[in-house]
Amino acid sequence: MCLTKSERLVIEELYDYNRIPLWILNTNLELQHSFFSDSSHDVKEILFTHMNGLTDKILNPSFDIFFYENELYYIFDFERNHQTFYLLAGPMLLSGFYHITQMRSLSFASNMDKKDLKFLVENLPVISFTSFSSCLRIIMLLLKNDAPSLEEISNYKCASLQGSLNRTFIHALFDNREDYRLHTPYSHELAVLNCVSEGNLARLQSTYKTLPQTKYGTMSNDPLRQLFYGCIANTTLVTRYAIEGGLDEETAFTLSDVYIKQMENCKTLYELNVLNERMAIDFTQRVANAKNLNQPIYTQPVTKCIHYILRNLHTKMTLNTLAKEVNLTPKYLSSLFRKETGQTLCSFIEDKRIKEAKDLLIYSQYTYSYISHYLSFYSQSYFISVFRKNVGMTPKEYRTKYS
């Protein structure tokens, strides 16, 4: 093994903190370890193939920092058991805001569909010089017991990939920016809020682990006050989604007041971040308890089918897929589901997708076409027709009225 257990644990924690994908290769450029989380196995495979292809163009694999326009990478070698291995890091981004057409110009985008590419770009870290330098030094000290100083990194002359850009100084690339994204993408916020309204504690905890730390914009020059304002906004949204999920209003609003008062007494960013997550977990657990009290008791196959549907609203689902998931024949599942819920599978899935569409229309600026595609409707016109049938107005009318 090229990494000890303690080294893997440290690198995993480092990845959870900075979200820089890491790939460890042997001298034959075969993958030994990777530190990269994504909901799609295909995305990981495509990204690794891209990273592996870069190695042929690297001028100095023993240590180099290199780039494609707004993408940044680094590589260094290290020894284990008299063998040489390479740690390849990236891609990291130097800009956090892309239209889908701009995403297509990124070097790793060619074999990805729009949805996977957008998800990947939103989850890749936008790097400042300070964060890049500190993370590079930590991992080199861990694996090599040696690392360049901050000054050496600042003055390092980046080697462009062969045939790529002109050589330049690394600090010029960062333009002395010391911040990541100013705002967390709406899709990340919605991922958390949907867990709250569903009372899905396991998914919420998984979401907190896999998504980057939330950013709340710039409302104050004081970092602690800035985070406090963001936590108030987050608590307000969590409260609304908890009520929608079934928590009674009096409990929800009282709990909201209690947490905001506690947040006001926090003295450090760490305390605020921990309390902010604890607040969402508390609300989610209470929603789950309320649902257990109010929810009809279904048989195990129907319950499992409902959970699968709620987790996969953004993918195409067929009766055969659902039947296979619960180990029943399609005909029997269809009959059982309708008998217990009073709805057909199609109408149940449609109801849940319309519910999520309403949230997207109110809380995001996504186009009707994007929402239609995102929720796997056959076409935009079909989405509008189904929405009007269920809500009594078109998506445009609904957004105008409630947004």
Overview features:
403 residues; alpha+beta; Arc Repressor Mutant, subunit A; 3 domains; 5-stranded antiparallel beta sheet; globular
Topology:
Layout: H1 5-18, E1 22-26, E2 31-35, H2 41-54, E3 63-68, E4 71-80, E5 83-93, H3 100-103, H4 114-123, H5 129-144, H6 150-154, H7 170-174, H8 186-198, H9 201-210, H10 223-245, H11 249-264, H12 269-294, H13 300-311, H14 319-326, H15 330-341, H16 345-363, H17 368-374, H18 380-391, H19 395-402
Antiparallel strand pairs: 1-2, 1-5, 3-4, 4-5
Helix pairs in contact: 1-5, 8-9, 8-10, 8-12, 9-12, 10-11, 10-12, 11-12, 13-14, 16-19
Describe this structure in words.
By secondary structure, this protein is α+β, with helices and mostly antiparallel strands. It has 19 helices and five strands. Strands 2-1-5-4-3 form a five-stranded antiparallel sheet. A hairpin with a 4-residue loop joins strand 1 (22-26) and strand 2 (31-35). Helix 9 (201-210) packs antiparallel against helix 12 (269-294), helix 10 (223-245) packs parallel to helix 12 (269-294) and helix 13 crosses helix 14. The protein is globular.
Please tally the β strands and state the result: 5
Number of alpha- plus pi-helical segments: 19
The largest β sheet comes out as: 5 strands, antiparallel
Q: What level of helicity do the residues show?
A: 55-70%
Shape descriptor reads globular
- Element-by-element helix/strand order: HEEHEEEHHHHHHHHHHHHHHHHH
Strand order of the largest sheet: 2-1-5-4-3
Distance between the termini: 54 Å
Average pLDDT taken over every residue: 80
Assess the beta-strand content as a share of residues: 5-15%
Q: Residue ranges: pLDDT <50 for 5 or more in a row? A: 160-173, 175-182
Q: Could you tell me the radius of gyration in angstroms?
A: 24 Å
Structural domain tally:
3
**Structural class by SSE content:** alpha+beta
